[in-house]
Amino acid sequence: MPHIVTLPGDGIGPEIVAPTVELLHRLVCDLTVVEHLFGGASIDAHGTAMTPDVLAAMRASDAVLLGAVGGPQWDTTDPDAPRPEQGLLGMRKELGLFANLRPVRPFPALYDASPLKRDRIEGTDLLVVRELTGGIYFGEKTRSATDASDLCHYTVAEVQRIARVAFRAARTGVTSVDKANVMETSRQWRQTVHEVHAAEFADVPLDDLLVDNAAMQLVADPSQFDVVVTENLFGDILSDVAAMLTGSIGMLPSASLGAQSAPGVFEPVHGSAPDIAGTGQANPLATFLSAALLLRHGLGLESEAQALESAVDRALAEGLRTRDLGGTASTVEATAAVLAHL
Ligand code: IPM
Ligand code: MG
């Protein structure tokens, strides 16, 4: 019996996770679902963004569905205060979720919702493969009254394993993004990616791109890309850039995967949107599409994943538009529209 943990989190998180669970029950009849507090909600209840019990529950599950974490009430510059994001980062590290997959495939029905012109985004179908457990996010941090520092650190083994994920996912090629003209970690990243390529994936076309140029190319000519692989911080930034190709960051799903034995975590790329929390206006589609990734990568249910993705496609083709896409559909209406096609 497939068993998943849900972590609705904060802001719009609970509003988008609840209808997603409804869809999952519709698709998987013997699914068991257990919900836990996470992020700011967990800080309020327990003083920490992720309790050991919740981590243990995740470990015992087949997959985790996450909403979003954070909100102004927990924003702080005090290095010792708990922050909701510590739950996210702790979970990634503890579960060893080193590979973050962010597919960007603008929906034809939404071409005109993108801030970019239709002819720029047409044909775009790319995958950002972001390294998720290394780099500056997890390097040593220091702070005194007069200075602060964050260390960017990567081992060769960390680069090799994310490079393999990228090469395996490639259909037409891999673009490795770095800042090798400035950073030592990037120079070793580039060399390592090329070594893995030569030894194991020589038939896959491989290009290197500096991160500033990559940001420009993603906006100027996104359809040139297939798989874009990059380190943690660059991947964070570039995936938000790429998200806008779909018209709204409210459309972008993600999967965070580790070793075979660890459950994957599936979540929308967008945040907790505290400004619209509680209004019933949140776009649940990125979470629905994350649930499709959960079905595919977490539970091995490919046809159910496709059924959900095509239900979203058809609802959009029939005119479903939430506020972020320039329409008026509420979360409830968006859910009904997708359910109608399931
Ligand atoms: C993301 C988010 C997180 C990150 C934040 C909330 C810590 O922006 O998943 O992209 O930077 O990784
Ligand atoms: Mg981000």
Q: In words, what does this structure look like?
A:
The chain folds into 2 domains: 1-101 and 259-342, Isopropylmalate Dehydrogenase (3-Layer(aba) Sandwich); 115-246, Isopropylmalate Dehydrogenase (3-Layer(aba) Sandwich), CATH 3.40.718.10. Helix content is 40%, strand content 17%. The protein is built from 12 helices and 12 strands. The strands form 2 sheets. The chain has a 10-stranded mixed β-sheet, with helices on both faces. The protein starts with a strand and ends with a helix. The mean pLDDT is 96.
Q: Can you identify the CATH class of the largest domain?
A: Alpha Beta
Low-confidence stretches: none
The major beta sheet can be summarized as: 10 strands, mixed
Query: In one word, what is the shape?
Result: globular
Counting H and I runs of at least 4 residues, what is the number of helices? 12
Order of helices and strands: EHEHHEHEHEEEHEHEHEHEEHHH
Mean pLDDT: 96
Structural class: alpha/beta
| Percent strand | 15-25%
- In which order are the strands of the major sheet placed? 2-1-3-12-11-4-5-10-8-9
CATH architecture designation of the largest domain: 3-Layer(aba) Sandwich
Give every kind of bound small molecule, once each.
3-isopropylmalic acid, magnesium ion
Percent helix among the residues?
A: 25-40%
Q: What's the name of the CATH homologous superfamily of the largest domain? A: Isopropylmalate Dehydrogenase
How many structural domains does the protein architecture include? 2
Tell me the span between the first and last alpha carbons. 22 Å
Q: Report Rg.
A: 20 Å
CATH T-level fold name of the largest domain: Isopropylmalate Dehydrogenase
| Number of beta-strand segments | 12
